[in-house]
Amino acid sequence: MHPTIEFDADLIARMTQRGPRYTSYPTADRFTPAFGAGEFAAAARPGKPLSLYVHIPFCESLCYYCACNKIITHDRGKAVKYLGYLLREIDMQAALFADGAVVEQLHFGGGTPTYLSDAQMGDLLGHLRSRYTFASDDAGEFSIEIDPRTVDAARIRTLRRQGFNRLSLGVQDFDEDVQRAVNRIQPEALTRDAIAAAREAGFRSISIDLIYGLPLQDVTTMAATLDKVVAAAPDRISVYNYAHMPQLFKSQKLIRDEDLPDGATKLAMLGLCIERLGAAGYVYIGMDHFARPDDELARAQRDGTLHRNFQGYSTHADIDMVACGVSAISAVNGTYAQNEKSLERYYTRIDRGELPVARGLALSGDDLLRREVIQKLMCDFALDLRDLAASRDVDVAARFAPELARLADLARDGLLAVTPDRIDVTPKGRLLVRNICMVFDDYFGKPAAVPLQRMQYSRTV
């Protein structure tokens, strides 16, 4: 078993429940239209280090499992139009943030960012660099998600020349039957070629995404996939739990319920992933993420500088994140702001000369305190209560008396150890850290800020 995780299938089966992934606190269902473009602009802090996120929503084909905000189209004209509006939004954002700011992180997500042509990508990056100052290649993290089915070695070399130094690619599963069941046919050779090309091009980090719980998967197919992933030796591996919610995501209706593995099989696959990746030397970072011990994620966790944001785990401290594109979410100076989710509304707002912010939230003092608690538990698996009391000037024992009492039940199950000075998540509790964090979530189980925003969460394990 993995050296930092104790996998207890019976405990997990008993305790797993639906809950937030805590890429933010408060979670997105708490965002409200009362927070708009004006409130977001007022939160801007020019001159501060920045993380930029750029959302490219287009894909060439539909993966049935996908829950991302994407647009399936072969009409390249749609990308041309979108880029025109995206550049205008970037200009509006830069007017608020760029003065003296250094971009330490850049992430292109989607959809499929490499839906853009080399020339379009070059123009977009050139525009960003004309508006912002970027950290050096050695100091900055500039990442992009690619689809190996549509990107060849020449394109990967171009992406590196354009300034990206981290690469993430989806695999999900190497089994051909599973691939057919989710409409993502991706021969192993394509993935291996993409990884080899990225290494030759000098990418600093290569990450692979897997999913367990897909149709026709079982322990045997997962074992074969893991063998191939370990042989490819990526720097980071994400192993996501497939959340089947066809009532929310229409494409998932194309997956047959009878083809899905049952709960016991899913747990067995997770246990196998933990065992195999641990044996291969990967460190469990948390929340589906594994990394090599010398990877920056693992080092950041050891140093206590690991952070969690809308893209998952991050090596940089809690810097402002400015997000551009349809549906993108910014996190700036104690606020969250999400752009319009439809292209039509996104375009309309920009045509009016407005930032396309549809909703958001200004965090209260209590929100900020609880966010810090949840961040520490999610990233460090520990919380120093004395440090928290001193830094926030708060009587922790009094402020969190109900929460500390609820933690006693989890402690009896062996998930954590609590003393007057510390909370430490045990190896048995690390897989259930979302359950622990939910204790400190003052919103969980309460009505959403806007009833139609009711969020349906995935299971914690």
UniProtKB/TrEMBL annotation:
Pathway: Porphyrin-containing compound metabolism; protoporphyrin-IX biosynthesis; protoporphyrinogen-IX from coproporphyrinogen-III (AdoMet route): step 1/1. Gene3D superfamilies: 1.10.10.920, tm_1862 like domain. S-adenosyl-L-methionine 1 binds at Y53, G110, E145, I329. It catalyses: coproporphyrinogen III + 2 S-adenosyl-L-methionine = protoporphyrinogen IX + 2 5'-deoxyadenosine + 2 L-methionine + 2 CO2. It is found in: Cytoplasm. Its cofactor is [4Fe-4S] cluster. Binds 1 [4Fe-4S] cluster. The cluster is coordinated with 3 cysteines and an exchangeable S-adenosyl-L-methionine. Residues 44-270 form the Radical SAM core domain. Its EC number is 1.3.98.3. GO terms for molecular function: 4 iron, 4 sulfur cluster binding; coproporphyrinogen dehydrogenase activity; coproporphyrinogen oxidase activity; metal ion binding. The keyword Ribonucleoprotein does not apply. InterPro entries: Coprogen_oxidase_HemN, Coproporphyrinogen-III_oxidase, Elp3/MiaA/NifB-like_rSAM, HemN_C, rSAM, rSAM_horseshoe, rSAM_sf. Keywords: 4Fe-4S, Cytoplasm, Iron, Iron-sulfur, Metal-binding, Oxidoreductase, Porphyrin biosynthesis, S-adenosyl-L-methionine. Monomer. Involved in the heme biosynthesis. Catalyzes the anaerobic oxidative decarboxylation of propionate groups of rings A and B of coproporphyrinogen III to yield the vinyl groups in protoporphyrinogen IX. This is Coproporphyrinogen-III oxidase. It comes from Massilia cellulosiltytica. The gene is hemN.
